[in-house]
Amino acid sequence: MDINRLTRLSEFAWRIEPVNGMRVPVIIYADETLIGDMDEKVREQAVNVTMLPGIVGACYAMPDAHWGYGFPIGGVAAFDAEQGGVVSAGGVGFDISCGVRTLHTGLKREQVDPLKKELVDALYATVPVGVGSRGHIRLDHAQMDEMLSGGAEWAVRQGYGRPEDLERIEERGRMAGAKPDAVSVHAKERQRAEMGTLGSGNHYLEVQEVSEIYDPAIAASFGLATGDVVVTIHCGSRGLGHQIGTDFLKRMQAAAVQYGIALPDRELACAPIESPVGREYLGAMRAAINCALANRQIITHLTRKVFAEILPEARLDLLYDVSHNTCKVEEHLIQGRKKRVYVHRKGATRAFGPGHPDLPKVFRETGQPVLIGGSMGTASYILSGTASGETLSFASACHGAGRAMSRHQAVRTWGGREVVDELAARGIIVRSPSWRGVAEEAPGAYKDVHDVVIAADRAGLARLVAKVTPMACIKG
Amino acid sequence: MSTETGQLQPATDAPSWEHFPHMADMGVRGRGATIEKAFAHAAEALNAVICDPVQVGTTTPVEIRCEAPDIESLLVDWLNALVYEMAVRQMVFGRFDVSIDGSALHAIAWGEPVERERHHPAVEVKGATYTELKVYRDENGVWIAQCVVDV
């Protein structure tokens, strides 16, 4: 991105002034190198978002922002229903409520290392992963609707997990306002065999070691110490969410025409929040959030079963579960006044700071854990929400490294076996059904996640707490 | 055959299908002497995102019908119908007989159940998008049908 077209606000913040139909400015959080490497399309897409009706504050781009469809990935935008604000399926993405959860094993690396290979093989055999994998759970029509209304709370009622898990999931494990009736038959059909599956692409389950602590007080409060082994699960709402995205991207094309919304880009298809299509999308999208929460809960249960056999002393207590593709109604300060707005986060993690009333008691003093996924070979990071994030970005932070290279380019650069062998030489065991899948997700195809989290920390979006490095990974 | 392009077409020297890069996802492009052929080849490109087309048997037919207000939307609907059939039937497809009548598409997609050991599916496609969506005739009279698919 050409920095000469931006106004520099600070070392880590850049602004595009609102001109030519933009209703609000764009603010991008990144250092000079990250912003220099950012695609010009990010600027273009963020500018387009600012032209949508009812947008408030600014359109924000996180340090890991990259070119998406319609909205940039790593984009945050809030809309006010009272000002004719819109909701956009493209502003949430296809993988609704894709997210990350981290579990404490309660074990140290020395305890896990001798059984690491056995452990990863058992996880690979137990957690359905990759294209063509099917879950062990089949839901009939009524059970599907219960799951879509109940989320992780439903999963725990079915015996997948522990009641105390729920406090450590956003929305306490159940997104209110879900409308299973607004979810198409096709979407439910796509989900029928996919409950408790990890999926493919950049989704994974990793066994990781806490390798560095940046904020000892918050790390201690999160229960993290150097040498601790944690398990991190990254996946979303599977076929159900993908089909809802497809269904509403199409319906919103027609809705935008019907309501006379001028779209700078077809992918920005949207509908007024206060319209039948808008309300239906919100109900369906919330059902997909519940699907994702239930899915990660079932995978957690499968993970606990594997550990119980191989490392029975492991605890697998939940640290937290965050989603990074959502639209949520939240109260924020808009021009000095508290307002309820519809915050779209597409490839951005909510990062509520200390004292936020929606946080469980356990995180009231620290702010919420913000879980940032890396790639197979690099590190992942745990941050905490800050008070400053509220005014900087509607309490949002980055979500991952962001791709530096297309899949196309990655498979031309690396072979899957080469990537697996190289990681094995560094002590990281990878299990995947597809060599090409591994090559497409090669660590070198991603930006340096370290630079991304440093920028998020320095910009004040979230505070760096700990670094975790992979020991073993299963992926689709 | 590579999984990134299809066979050459003598008339244009351009491959019948290919992938084009998009940062997070993948672009699929089909070419053909007719719009139907371009749509069929775009579907081949879609399937090649998932696995090597050479490995796909074409024993089982699946009928697909869709309708859209314009030809570009019809391409998105066609590819999304295939994504849906692949997901619920757990199939991969290798050959496509497409007919288009105005705004309506009727097709038979030929494929077989996905077998992980043989097909080595790399990634599932979440959906076709309106990004880089184009259906047009180029200067050589060849039809092009393309868009980015989310993976």
Task: Give a summary of the structure in a few sentences.
The complex is a heterodimer of chains A (476) and B (151). Chain A is an alpha+beta fold and 476 residues long.
Top keywords for this entry?
heterodimer; A: 476 residues; alpha+beta; tRNA-splicing ligase RtcB; seven-stranded mixed sheet; B: alpha+beta; Archease, Possible Chaperone, Chain: A, domain 1; 8 strands; 26% helix
What can you see in these coordinates?
The complex is a heterodimer of chains A (476) and B (151). Helix content of chain A is 33%, strand content 25%. With 476 residues, chain A is an alpha+beta fold. Chain A has one domain: tRNA-splicing ligase RtcB, CATH 3.90.1860. In chain A, the strands form four sheets. In chain A, strands 7, 8, 9, 11, 15, 16, 18 and 19 form an eight-stranded mixed sheet that branches. Chain A has a seven-stranded mixed sheet with strand order 1-2-3-4-5-13-12, sandwiched between helices. Chain A is globular and about 60 Å long. By secondary structure, chain B is of the alpha+beta class. Chain B has one domain: 3-Layer(bab) Sandwich (Archease, Possible Chaperone, Chain: A, domain 1), CATH 3.55.10.10. Chain B is built from three helices and eight strands. Chain B has helices at residues 35-50, 71-89, 116-119, and strands spanning 17-21, 26-32, 60-67, 91-101, 104-113, 127-128, 134-137, 143-150. In chain B, strands 1, 2, 6, 7 and 8 form a five-stranded antiparallel sheet that branches. In chain B, strand 4 (91-101) and strand 5 form a beta hairpin. The longest helix of chain B has 19 residues, at 71-89. The chains are: A alpha+beta (476), B alpha+beta (151).
